[in-house]
Fold:
Amino acid sequence: MRTFGFPDFLFMLEAARWTIALSLIAFAGGSVGGLLLALARISPNRLLRSAASGFIKLFQGTPLLLQLFLIFFGAPVIGIEVNPWTAASVALILNSSAFLGEIWRGCIEAIPAGQWEAAHALSLSYVSRLRDVILPQAFKIALPPTVGYLVQIIKGTSLAAIIGFVEVTRTGQIINNATFQPLVVFSVVAAIYFVLCWPLSLLAARMERRRAAAHAR
Amino acid sequence: MNYTFQFGDVFAAWPLLVRGTWITIQLSAEAMLLGLLVAILCAWGKTAGPRPLRWLINAYIELIRNTPFLVQLFFFYFALPALGVRWSAHTAALAAMVVNLGAYATEIIRAGIESIPKGQIEAGLALNLNAVDIFRFVILKPALRAIYPALTSQFILLMLASSVVSAISADDLTSVAANLQSQTFRSFEIYIVVAVIYLVLSLLFSALFRLIQRRWLSYPERR
Structure:
């Protein structure tokens, strides 16, 4: 048996790359999916609205871990070979699409109806109304909760460890199995996540305060 | 796609699934109640306590909110026994859930408490209520009412997150699914069924929360 040493720490730090990479993939994909869902949720088309809300209910009403399992074990069944990378990316993208879609819908709906009406009165097209009038204003409102949600995504990537994706939590398990020093190992793992997430949490809180202050004026 | 779905093995194991579902419900309900208690105490400490206590509660909240639940669970299950705490996977899972929910719910309840206008508390003082009664009736109940939707959606997130405790083989629904999977190799079918059970559970919990709101948290609005 060996003790926890500096090389183990470096191993974990290296694995943090994959945590960050997976988070970025999930956020990028989730942003695209989230925007589409948010737009579908406010669209005049009823079919589109209920399809989007069904998708969101499904992904917000089941555990992320189960979504991960379903994709990881389910994809081979329909003939697609998946490795933990793809499974984790797809599951996290779909999950964060649902949550970001719901957050952003709220932000879009927070824009007063007068803005829509004014844009309509200027005879702007639907696309132009959204792109030039509503979305830029909604973007400002959406920024703080989106940064806050980034923290949720980073924490969510830890579940990929359960299907064998080697990121920070998985390296923690591996090193713990070799050293039997769970207290040190999992403290370091927690510390790495904390260093990744805390600045984002502080940033989100700061942005929120600023927005509230600007709003109060 | 040439796959024949075979749900037979999954449904044949229904007593196991029912047991797992019940344990998930039990774990979640216990964690909700205890977590709420922790959160009320912490929210009180954070709004009215002395400075060192407030600092301590803040550290607890930030630490929990900025690390993954899975890591907290591993810490409770693997690391604390190294310090001499002896407990089963089930108890470790419950403890991790309570500690996790406590941190999130403290922030929610604190926001509710801070939304209570000062005049309302002064009115309570004027009616000669003591500190405990003021906290209970003048601050806490209206505060809970104000943040009830946020609190209950946090509860449901916790119920869904409880699937993670299968990673330490606490005997919850997802653990049952994982065991069935290794016996029957019908992984896709099993996880579909279990995902549907979770979906139903989250719908049931939100229905229950609406009922509680209507029964205990609504009173006539002043007109």
The mean pLDDT of chain B is 91.
